[in-house]
Design goal:
By secondary structure, this protein is an alpha+beta fold. It has two domains: about 190 residues, HIT-like (HIT family, subunit A); about 160 residues, HIT-like (HIT family, subunit A). It contains six helices and 16 strands. An eleven-stranded antiparallel sheet has the order 1-2-5-7-9-8-13-14-12-11-10, with helices on both faces. A hairpin with an 8-residue loop joins strand 11 and strand 12. Keywords: Carbohydrate metabolism, Galactose metabolism, Metal-binding, Nucleotidyltransferase, Transferase, Zinc. Pathway: Carbohydrate metabolism; galactose metabolism. GO terms for molecular function: UDP-glucose:hexose-1-phosphate uridylyltransferase activity; zinc ion binding.
Length: about 350
């Protein structure tokens, strides 16, 4: 993949255009009267009850919320006066979020959490938006394979860049699709977060994986993958290099995990042929999601990536796809047990979901 074209928005935010072969991006000057950046920054606060960092980002209250299609800020804006993408067209574009949960560069170190006082720190990090296509009514599942592969290349590029920056501990690429999930813009897009700490779920999985290594001398994720492949009843799709399956203890009404068949920490560890296969199986699973019900399936797509470091050495790259839709016309609400106790209760069996996804 050739290097992206770098551009600058009116308030100084960075923008990158990733293009298919033969396509040349042609952005124009961003003429919007945007307020200067830096007037507000989020804050990290340490929750001593859980030992977790919480991001307080009051500036996000003012973010754009479900605009009409003709006012979408992610559609191309050839005049440079209306859109976050000042260009007549584009393939894939990434830019710094105008309303970031985390922002700021330069030197940063999380404060020591020892002690009893209320503890806070600047909301250091990076939040980016990635637009999968200029087509407002499209979806990742509908992208032609080369275009979908370009998105994967952009994810890989941004992962490498953000991991190289000071104070970034974890890079998280994800997509929220559907108003039932909570999207505020219906244009097909995702987000990329650079966190200054390991997220609670990542820490928990690495802790359990470390305990598994101490007991068994093997990698937890690799062992789970091998067991799912051997059982096969929950496997949804396979290629030579990847396996997609509904996990044995699925939490969500629809949940599929995609793993490479060999150990990798992140997209950075996969070669070109593996990235091609990853694109194929990822798109295949999303197309199965689209065929489950008459209406589109709302979902979250989460790319679990890890550093090649002592602290994260047991981390095995995989994607977790999940949906709150439990039937054609019913949603699973994360109510008391799930939201207050983090104790999930599933309304369907993982085996039945896997069978349904295989059939569609």
């Amino acid at each position: 993949m050739t290097q992206p074209l770098r551009w600058t928005l009116a308030d100084g935010r960075e923008q990158l255009y990733f293009s298919l072969p033969g396509h040349t991006p042609a952005p124009v000057g961003d003429r919007r009267p945007l307020p200067p950046r830096g007037n507000q920054q989020s804050e990290l606060r340490f929750d001593r009850q859980t030992g977790q960092w919480v991001v307080i980002a009051a500036l996000r209250q003012d973010r754009t919320y479900l605009p009409a299609a003709d006012q979408c800020p992610l559609c191309p804006g050839p005049t440079g006066e209306t859109s976050e993408v000042p260009a007549p067209d584009y393939d894939v574009v990434v830019f710094e979020n105008r309303f970031p949960s985390l922002s700021g560069g330069g030197e940063f170190t999380l404060p020591d959490t020892a002690g009893a006082e209320f503890l806070s720190a600047p909301g250091h990090g990076r939040c980016e938006v990635i637009c999968f296509s200029s087509d407002h009514t499209g979806a990742f599942s509908q992208l032609p394979l080369p275009h979908a592969r370009l998105v994967v290349s952009a994810w890989r590029h941004r992962t490498a860049d953000l991991l190289s920056r000071n104070g970034i501990e974890q890079v998280f690429c994800f997509e929220n699709r559907g108003e039932a999930i909570g999207v505020t813009l219906n244009h097909p897009h995702g987000q990329i977060y650079g966190y200054p700490y390991l997220t609670p779920r990542t820490e928990q999985m690495l802790r359990v994986a470390g305990e598994h290594r101490a007991r068994n001398g093997t990698n937890l994720f690799a062992d789970l993958l091998a067991r799912e492949r051997a059982d096969s009843v929950r496997v949804v799709a396979q290629t030579d290099s990847f396996t997609a399956f509904v996990p044995f203890a699925a939490r969500w009404p629809v949940e599929v995990h995609i793993y490479p068949n060999r150990f990798a920490h992140s997209l950075l560890d996969l070669d070109d042929s593996e990235l091609d296969e990853f694109t194929e199986i990822y798109r295949d699973v999303l197309q199965r999601f689209d065929r489950m019900y008459p209406t589109e399936l709302p979902y979250i797509s989460a790319l679990h990536q890890y550093r090649d470091s002592e602290r994260q050495r047991e981390g095995y790259f995989h994607v977790e796809l999940m949906s709150v839709r439990r039937s054609e016309n019913k949603l699973k609400y994360l109510a008391g047990s799930e939201s207050a106790m983090d104790a999930f209760i599933s309304d369907v069996t993982p085996e039945s979901v896997a069978q349904r996804l295989r059939e569609v």
